[in-house]
Amino acid sequence: MLKIEDLKVSYGGIEAVKGISLEVPENTIATLIGANGAGKSTVLRSIVGLVKPVSGDISFNGESITGLTSDQIVSRGITLVPEGRRIFPNLTVLENIKIGAYMRKDDLSEDIAWMNDLFPRLKERSWQLAGTLSGGEQQMLAVARALMSKPKLIMMDEPSLGLAPLVVKGIFDIIKEIHKQGMTILLIEQNANLALKAADIGYVLETGSIVMQGEGKELLKDQSIREAYLGKSK
Amino acid sequence: MGLQTFMQHLANGISLGSLYALIAIGYTMVYGILRLINFAHGDIFMMAAYLAFFGMTIFSMPWYVAFIMVIVVTVILGILIEKAAYRPLRDAPTSSVLISAIGVSFLLENLATFLFSGKPRAFPTFETMTYSLDMQGVSVQVLTIIVPIVTLIILFILLFVINRTKLGMAMRAVSKDYEIAKVMGIKINNIIAYTFAIGSALAAIGAFLWGMKYPQVSPLMGVMPGLKCFIAAVIGGIGNIKGAVLGGFILGLAEVLLVAFFGQLTGYRDAIAFILLIIILLVRPTGLLGEKTAEKV
């Protein structure tokens, strides 16, 4: 579904992503793991058109989306749950949900009902300003906002960051739930253990290059990964 | 000072304050979205006043035709300025855009001097607007009453648009996080253009009313009102529309009442705005209704 070929991205002369290739097949959960500064977020940012790659190609359902503007990319069915949630704090919870559907012209009531179903906490707080929500609730809101665009591919950047373990579990339950409903997911995580357990395919990114790839469960067993990312020795 | 005289000054202050408010909204809206003080705003106001002047004198349009023409042309001017002078600098540091804004300001002032000559001209006035009503001994011009009414109507429409429409929602989103707004599929350039359009339309309405109140146009007529309205926006809390209106009223009232009570201070009339600005910056730098900078993330 999503295919990246030899993607290179630079920030002010420094190469953050050094020619990576990866693929996210339809109906899978793919994950990109790696340490801080490995270039994970940069990959996602270039997929949604927030940074222009130096070279390489990104294609979605067979069509190249490299160099398109963000609204063109979003309209093709890609959405992002950004790192640090970045919900709009000055909008109400309901407005944040609605703004996810900004490009849609059809009736939203069915999907808003679905969100209320998926996230009952948000329904209780729909008139509150989103900035007053707790971290976990904000993360749910960011997911709800992304789902409202009716995406085919949802990309999540560190959804577990800074959240209590119980909340993280809740978020991952939701990820699995929306995957079950037919969504393709590209997940970025520092929490490699959690991500690899949930994922069908995993890619390991190290200083801008993919150093390993394979089935999530296979990678989880890999000795070098266990040492580097899971903090487990023999 | 008798009650009647006081009421008289109060009415004048509110009326002047409303004019300030109309222009201040333009500053505050652009700041809210772009974090830019649009220094050309006062000169857009000046251009609008000239448009109204030429429309009604040389082209002898009826006032309502001229009124609509001025709004339309000023809106186009505002959007063009944004496109030519600010959009190419979208990813540049704020200070570059600020310098560009000052450049546009000088350009408009000098263009107006070149095209229309520096000589001040008399703005056409109408009987209906300057007609004085006698309200229990307080004589008030029709215009003095109309100006605050127009301002309040516009304020309500604007608050409705911003808080209740999809466009307003997008504006608020862009003002907070334009990158994520992009990811929502919002075309931020369009939203910015709408913001300039609204600000310019209000400057046009303000210029029209201003011309009737102070019936003279000149190429530098936008400088002082521009500065004062910027100050009004800062006093109210820049980025906040209600704040801009509040700041406008405070400034208008302070100016008129201070001169009324202390006649010997008449010469310092223009200094009042700056004194207020200094006080506000010292006591409450975010302005009266300004948002707190610290936020839960």
Using brief descriptors, characterize the structure shown.
heterodimer, A: 234 residues, alpha/beta, Rossmann fold, 10 helices, B: 297 residues, mainly alpha, two-stranded antiparallel ribbon, 4 strands
Describe the structure.
The complex is a heterodimer of chains A (234) and B (297). With 234 residues, chain A is of the alpha/beta class. Chain A has a domain at 2-84 and 150-229: Rossmann fold, CATH 3.40.50.300. Chain A is built from ten helices and ten strands. In chain A, strands 6-7-8-3-9-10 form a six-stranded mixed sheet, sandwiched between helices. Chain A is globular. The termini of chain A are far apart. Chain B is mainly alpha-helical and 297 residues long. Chain B has a single domain, classed as ABC transporter involved in vitamin B12 uptake, BtuC, CATH 1.10.3470. Chain B has a two-stranded antiparallel sheet. Chain B has a two-stranded antiparallel sheet with strand order 2-3. In chain B, helix 3 crosses helix 9 (188-213). At the A-B interface, helix 2 and helix 3 of A face helix 7 and helix 8 of B.
